[in-house]
Structures
1.
Amino acid sequence: MTSATATVTATHLRQATLPATTDHPRFARNPGVEFDPDWVSSVQINTSAVERRAASLGARRSVKKSYQAAWLLRAVTLIDLTTLSGDDTAQRVRRLCAKARHPLSQTLRDGLDIGSLSITPAAVCVYHDMVETAVEALDGSGIPVAAVSTGFPDGLSPFDLRVKEIEASVRAGAQEIDIVISRRHVLSGNWQALYDEMRAFRAACGGAHIKAIISTGQLGTLRNVARASHVCMMAGADFIKTSTGKESVNATLPVSLVMVRATREYEDRTGYKIGFKPAGGISKAKDALVYMSMMKEERGNDWLRPDLFRFGASSLLGDIERQLEHHLTGRYSATHRHGIS
């Protein structure tokens, strides 16, 4: 039964600065710029200041009641719903795609009074050999398929094979490619090599958008994170992404803050907007709200839409469903009632 406090109206979405619909691309795609070593060497990070700012983000009170529900509904549209397991099967991918088509139960939709809203994840993300299965399962839904590529997760396969893998995924129907960079280029300070590698990956993607995974947990310092982010954007990245989700340390608020500010600096210099994707370890709705708050404060409302912000997640959607059900009924449901695949 719908109550006045449970209903999430367009007013809540609007007052929470979360538009009820997602527009088509609203800005020019980043073509990249010439490599500038002086730009890279000028990038410095005040680590203690970053850590203080990051610590303050999670210590604040979150949005509440119907406004929180509105933010969580928006969070659903920001998820790259992901399965990247060694035991993935075609049937598992089809189930994940079915969940992407209908991420919220009809009971939740009716109770929240959101029947007029189109709420689906931003993409479904799979390994290359599952791209065709996902494309077929999502046909007609408007939900794009993203493929991890370039020897994911370590990026250590021969360079020509990494490029061919991108091309094969695009031919199979992937509209987005999540590539991993060669960490050794960052750790050795070979920024020209990183730039050249990214340019080749960008060219291989053609019309497919490219998300550059810089594997922040393996880069050693926040300065390396910032410099790698800038180089990938110079080379034409559409998104910069924290992690593969396979590292021992994945998305954290300090590295995310550094990367988000790098996108702002890049836009100030070039005029091009770059997206940001934290991935790995974001499995709770409350964490999603913290990241969304950071994006709103650091970059503004434009970065609360899927063309500029994504969550790389496999279990986040289930916890969002539980929180929405609690908002509606006052009770938490069992986790197993919200399976993903």
Note: The radius of gyration is 19 Å.
2.
Amino acid sequence: MTLRGDRVTLAHGGGGKAMRDLVEEVFTDQFEPASMEDQARLEAQALAEPGARLAFTTDSFVVSPVEFPGGDIGTLAVNGTVNDLAVGGARPLWLSAAFIIEEGTEFALLRRIVASMKAEAEKAGVKIVTGDTKVVGRGAADTLFVTTSGVGVIPPGRDLAAEHIAPGDVAIVNGVLGDHGACILAARGDMALSSALKSDCAGLGHLMEAVLAAAPGTKAARDCTRGGLASALNEMAATARVSVELDETALPLRAEVKGTCELLGLDPLYLANEGRLVLFVPEAEAEAALAAMRAVETGHEARIIGRAGDGPAGLVTMRTAFGGSRIVDMLVGEQLPRIC
């Protein structure tokens, strides 16, 4: 060990020996890139398959606190990027990871986050192959920001897109909703909330592969992150020019999440999720898709929650438990307090 002290200093972003020590002892020691060149060189059999297409995505992650029950900013960064690839039908293969670190951040915290990133990447079957680090002064960042980009391969014949959704297609979610958002609200500690909830943060690549094998007619999928299920459905309905009707009694929600939302005046349909998706399949394949999801750890609590219709294009409604109906609109502005 050549790192001195227990916290990051501005010298660790200066490009010299201190920075090299930080990179080697905290990052590359865990991620084990194939080389230390300025770029990753990607090779895979899947790239040579006739008709295969590359998928590429990027995202930045900020969350307070950076560690919370069920995960940390590192698990968010890996799984969030893996999931953006997976819901498009791609098999995630490679990730990059760039870190903006606030001066004074503990090395021990960085090591925990990097270790969790490595563990999540191994579970998802992806490799973190390149990255970058920057150190900024105190107050210029909230401990740590992470940007990840991902590359995957879409096998020949797969074409998932919201524009394919048609009236009669069934909407399915892979588990309970809102756990991540409610967990972060409690973990922040500024609202005197106490909760045993854990984040739902998880990679969904294996689940998507299982669904596509069992229900090859799957039309589209979307992960329900910021803006929650409601925003994802509004985006999909608008693109497909269909209506969507949800069944309130079918929505999987924990009592703790409902209670948190009632206390704070929030709607659980807009709470962020980090291991939940919604997908549309033809009605004839709905039971096969459900069975495939329930056979995978991240889909044990999968449920049918509604269906697409031929009503006004882009309109999402919910049939309530009392027999009425209400509009579930796109989130306007920001659902406070901010959780990421």
Note: The longest strand covers residues 91-102.
